[in-house]
Amino acid sequence: MAATAIDVQELTARFEEMILLATQGTEIIVMEKNIPRARLVPLAVGQARKAGLHPNAIETTEDFDAPLPEAFWADTP
After folding, report:
1. DSSP string, 15-43
2. Residue 77 to residues 5, 54, 56, 64, 66, Cα–Cα distance (Å)
3. Which of 9, 20, 29, 49 has minimal CB crowding within 10 Å?
4. Contact at 8 Å (CB) between 8 and 30?
5. Model pLDDT for residues 22-73, shown as the tens digit of each residue
6. What pLDDT does residue 70 have?
7. What is the pLDDT of residue 49?
8. d(CA 18, CA 64)
9. Which CATH number is 3-40 given?
């Protein structure tokens, strides 16, 4: 992915252009006084999540929904 840096002041004037570049795959780095402050990238709209990519990655116990002990709520060891 290509990247373009732009000062925050210039971004205001060229916002529509930067949005168009981002939707075309260019990463826009918003700078303020030569410090990177934000990144403008396209959303992954319409890309469905695929189930089963990480089988057995999460485990739960039989009592995962049991009430927590009082010590948890009292913030005591």
Report:
1. HHHHHHHHHTTPEEEEEETTEEEEEE---
2. 49, 35, 31, 20, 19
3. 49
4. yes
5. 988 899 999 999 999 999 988 777 777 788 888 888 888 999 899 988 888 8
6. 85
7. 76
8. 47
9. 3.40.1620
